Amino acid sequence: MTVAVPQNSATAAIDALLIAYDDLQVAPDGRAIGLDGKDWLDVGTIRDMSAKASLSDPTILEQFKHPYPLAFDLTQRTVPFVDPGRLRNARLFEALYFQTEQAARNSLVTVTEPALPQASFQVTQKRNVACQLSAALAELAASGTDYSAIFQGAGGGFNWRVIAGTTRLSTHSYGIAFDVNAELGKYWLWTGAKEGAVGAYDNVIPESLVTTLERFGFIWGGKWHHFDGMHFEYRPELILYSRILSQ
Ligand SMILES: [Zn+2]
């Protein structure tokens, strides 16, 4: 059994993907997307299954099931499994980015900001990720706010690895994610919480840092039920989708 996605939401999700990744195309039937005009990826539906089950292999549309909150509001994350951005369709990411570690490695560059020396991250140049991060760091450095503690001992960017406790490839593998200071950011698994029953998130990451990075296409894991407060990830389609819905 499947749950029909409201047509306007499905259209908004596809529109957001097309704006975010301008070489994506929609198949003539409007139900699939692709990059080369022949290998189409079905956008699927939002299936009637538990959030935990869909997490292991979500459809493309299920990635948009819970709109990413544009406001700096951490109340939505108190709802179990409301993790906007944590659902990722592996075939879409392989198509948008890389299928092998070597291909990912060949695209890497280290982004640094002279006025914010603690911030230095190896990310991909593909899809302007490095450019966007560089611009965001420059803006943070120019803001006058002292972010040095947030970037002190930062966890880093590219890392070809699976997500802790899973067999799913982390988005650090594609060079589209980076972690700030882990101690300040905090991670749900380290609290001893059970999946789907994560308690309060005692956040110290400043709103100004999050909103600046969001403006350049990076979502923040602190807005997830399964919070990953050190984690930022290039997902402009999720931010665009929320903007389209809020119009
Ligand atoms: Zn991370």
UniProtKB/TrEMBL annotation:
It holds the Pfam family Peptidase_M15_4. Residues 165-234 form the Peptidase M15C domain. One of its GO terms (molecular function) is peptidase activity. This is M15 family peptidase.
